[in-house]
Amino acid sequence: MNPPADATARRAIAPVICYPVATLPAPDMALLDAARATLIKTGEVLVPPRDAATFTVPAGHFFRITSVEGSQVGDLNLWNADDLSERFYSGKTRALHGTHITRGQHMWSSFPALRPMATITHDSLEWYGKDEFGGSVHDVIGTRCDPYTHNLLSGDQYHHCCHSNLTRALADHLGIPHAQAEPHIHDVLNVFMCTGFTRDTGQYFMKASPVRPGDTLEFFAEINLLGALSACPGGDCSTVHSSDHAQCHPLLVETFKPDAATLENWSPPPVNGYNRRHGG
Questions:
Q1: Which residues make beta-bridge pairs with 231?
Q2: Which residues contact 204 (CB under 8 A, 6 or more apart)?
Q3: Residue 52: inside a domain, yes or no?
Q4: Tens digit of pLDDT for each residue in 55-109?
Q5: Is the pTM of this model over 0.85?
Q6: What is the pLDDT of residues 234-243, one digit of tens each?
Q7: H-helix or E-strand containing 41?
Q8: How many C-beta atoms surround the C-beta of residue 33 within 10 A?
Q9: How many angstroms separate the CA atoms of 167 and 163, rounded?
């Protein structure tokens, strides 16, 4: 189809940011940095390759994900530990902060609460920025590798996609069947994963993660959290995922308690203030 006569003018219209964030409550990073300086380790979980594990973090504590042994990406789910219906909302986090998140930005929860669940307090890969392909690290655009899309594309039955790993881990934690746990699994934060969109077709791409052993992504728990992390079967995501072909490594999750005195001026965020009348 031939373009209209004013096609160039239409394309030249400047974009408008959908959700300006100047009025968002900004995290007090000076306060959080002071709390970080007092951290005492309270526990750890080693997530095996091509598997997932759960962990809990009380409000006001920290958790840290670390690459160990080799380059590896992870898929992170978060829930309100006291109410699993409140869970990480990757789409709204993306709309507010962009396609990839880093230090000083929140992971937001689902409706109707829509509040910060966790705040990133340290990112050893913050230096990466955006590369020449448009790629960056820690994305909120990929949904998680799953056996349904894998079956759709290949016809295979593969049981160690991140979706299945997270399902098994949550089911084990709650002591419920997989079928009951699966509806709670949701779109993820792709920890350490380097991704973007191709400029020609706009397709979601992955490339070798810049993560190396010792790199960390650290979070402050704004509310009581239940987390689940999958060590993706894609390894560093340089070649394929949803298979046993990539070299994979474990991921370490550690939890920490700060000196309570450093958080005297902090309180958990309230649920969203919308009255939920919806015009009724």
A1: 49, 74
A2: 141, 142, 195, 196, 197
A3: yes
A4: 999 999 999 999 999 999 999 999 999 999 999 999 999 999 999 999 999 999 9
A5: yes
A6: 999 998 878 8
A7: strand 40-47
A8: 12
A9: 6
